[in-house]
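Key result, reporting period 2: structure in, sequence out.
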C-alpha cells in the first residue's frame, strides 16, 4: 500500500514534523490534500524507477481542476514522462477531449501507455508523439488548444512557452511545472544558467500583456498564465 506522502521530498517532510515550520507543514498538507489512487501511485512508482520526476500530487490536483474548469477538449503536454500529470489532466478533461503529449524518451511513453491502459483511458483520448518538443510544437495549430502543460527540460522552457502562447485559444491556460526549481528561483543569489533561464520565464510572462500570470507554490512551483 503506497501513499502520496511517500513521494514527497524527504527534507520537506522532516521539517514539517510538529515542531517544524508552519508554512512547510501547510505545503505538505496541501500536497496530500487530494490523495492519489493506486493507478496514479503505480504510475508514480514507474516514473521513479525510470528516474523521471513526475508532478507532485498538489500540482496534479490543480491540473485536474484547470482541465475541468476550462472544459479542456484539446490539451498539450510537453514532457510525457511516465504519465502521472497526463492521468490527472485526463481525469479533468471531458471524455471526448484529446491529450497530445510529447517526449523524446520512448521508454517513458511506454510507461505512460501502461498507466493509461490501467486507468482504462480510451485510445482516442491520447495522441502520444515521440520527439523533441522543439520539432513537434511548431506543427500544432495556432489557437487550437485549451490548456498547455510544460514539464520537460527547463532549458527548453523559453521556447516551449513561446510556442504554448501561440497554441492557446483566448481564455486558454498555460501551466509551467518546476517554476521554482527547488526554491532556487526565489533565491536572488542563485545565478547559474538553469536558475536564470527558469526565473526569466516567470519574469517574461509577468511582463507579457497577452497573459494574466500567477505563481502557485504547489509542488516545485506551478506558474500559470491565462491567455487573453
Ligand atoms: C519531468 S518529466 C515529465 C513528467 C510528466 N509531465 C509527469 O508529471 O508525469 C520530463 C520529461 O521530459 C523529457 N525530456 C527531457 N528533455 C527533453 C528534451 N530535450 N526533449 C524532449 N523531452 C525531454 C524526459 O524524457 C522526461 O520524460
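The corresponding designed sequence is given below.
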Amino acid at each position: 500500500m503506497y501513499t502520496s506522502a511517500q513521494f514527497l521530498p524527504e527534507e520537506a517532510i522532516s521539517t514539517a514534523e510538529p515542531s517544524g515550520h508552519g508554512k512547510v507543514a501547510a505545503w505538505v498538507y496541501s500536497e496530500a490534500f487530494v490523495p492519489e489512487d493506486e493507478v496514479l501511485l503505480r504510475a508514480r512508482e514507474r516514473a521513479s524507477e525510470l528516474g523521471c520526476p513526475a508532478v507532485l500530487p498538489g500540482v496534479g490536483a490543480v491540473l485536474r481542476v484547470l482541465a475541468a474548469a476550462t472544459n479542456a477538449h484539446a490539451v498539450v503536454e510537453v514532457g510525457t514522462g511516465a504519465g502521472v500529470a497526463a492521468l490527472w489532466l485526463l481525469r479533468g478533461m471531458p471524455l471526448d477531449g484529446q491529450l497530445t503529449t510529447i517526449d523524446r524518451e520512448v521508454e517513458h511513453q511506454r510507461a505512460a501507455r501502461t498507466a493509461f491502459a490501467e486507468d482504462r483511458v480510451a485510445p482516442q483520448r491520447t495522441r502520444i508523439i515521440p520527439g523533441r518538443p522543439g520539432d513537434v510544437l511548431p506543427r500544432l495549430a495556432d489557437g487550437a488548444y485549451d490548456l498547455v502543460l510544460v514539464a520537460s527540460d527547463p532549458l527548453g522552457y523559453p521556447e516551449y512557452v513561446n510556442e504554448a502562447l501561440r497554441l492557446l485559444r483566448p481564455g486558454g491556460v498555460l501551466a509551467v511545472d518546476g517554476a521554482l526549481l527547488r526554491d532556487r528561483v526565489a533565491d536572488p543569489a542563485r545565478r547559474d544558467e538553469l536558475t536564470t533561464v527558469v526565473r526569466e520565464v516567470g519574469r517574461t510572462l509577468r511582463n507579457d500583456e497577452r497573459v494574466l500570470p500567477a505563481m502557485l507554490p504547489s509542488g516545485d512551483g506551478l506558474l500559470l498564465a491565462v491567455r487573453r
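Confidence is low (pLDDT under 50) at residues 15-19. The two ends are 44 Å apart (CA to CA). This case is discussed further under Risks and Mitigation.
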